[in-house]
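Example record used in the benchmark description.
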Amino acid sequence: MKMMFYLREYRKYIIILPLILCLTVLSSCSDISVQTDYFIVMDTLIESTVISKKAETGKEVNEKIQEICEEIEGRISKTVETSEIYKLNDYIRIIDHTLVWELSQETAEILQTADFIRKETNGAFNPSLGDIIDLWGLSNQDEDFERKLPEKDDFYRALEFMQTSRYEIIQDNGIYYLHSDMLSRTKFDLGAIGKGYALDKISDYLIDAGIPNALVSFTSSILAAGRNRIGNLWSVALKDPFFPDDPEKACGYISASDKFISVSGGYERFATIDGIDYCHIIDPETGYPVDNDLLCAVVVMNAPSALQSKESRDKLKNNGAVSDALSTALYVMGKEKALKFYNSTSLDFEMILFVEADNDKGYDIIPTNVIFTEIEETTENERLMPKLDY
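Model output (structure tokens):
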């Protein structure tokens, strides 16, 4: 099996960010307030823009959105020692018997969704990658941490545990339990689904609070709720994968209303070992960083809205988490498998694949039923990129 890696000079990734072209157009309007706030949760800079009639309402909503994100991080982080996932992972290290572990409803819900996507994607997404990721040093933020290739014995043991890991969520008298056999001794890492799950909870809150129009960005996962302040679709720009550090360069943008948008690719996060930069996304089949013909995969799914019936909203439950995990799975699959999956699955989503190509851009763009506009096709005004305070 060949070794997979990204050299730094060829490192390719794409960042997703809001391109809110309309927010400064009608700033003199007094009947609409646009409140934007920034905060860091889950090691991610989050931008939250809320449209409301009163500025105070927008500020309160942004504060609540931050609280929701912090509460979720406190439950599912694998590095916060008080979190449910940290405690579960710590216990998994020492058990030699079948595991039965009590969970909150929220943590049980995200683990159920993660297992569902694992099964749907035939393992291309796997929530049990914690040990493999640790062996590669992909989640270690310590600058003095000395990264090295995983030891063979440790690597193959962790790979076997990860690939055979199975669990079930059981509800008994209103209490949720995780059941797992004694062979499933590998740590959970919900980093590839957690941001989308947080967007699900934010979407629920916005609906309950009567806020139909908002844009919440986790950089790689976005909720575009309703419309912008002048009633147009939100515009979400996709940066050119070959100019990732230049905020002025974008290859195009998605026009969206009531959508979850998630993207996975070779981001800034990587591990440098012996002069080689290894992509931060692991292929569960091999245990090695992904190396295929995709630069990134973008997933677009419907989000619930206050204007929908409860029955319609219930059908879209967990779509934020699904889109987050699914973008990772598609990126792991590569072009051909991703297209085959799209044409055969019962999951209701659209996607954009950025595929390496021998042309002037260096890539081809394959969109499905997405309102995606390449920059070359837009007007001069629409080319303007905002200088966002990232």
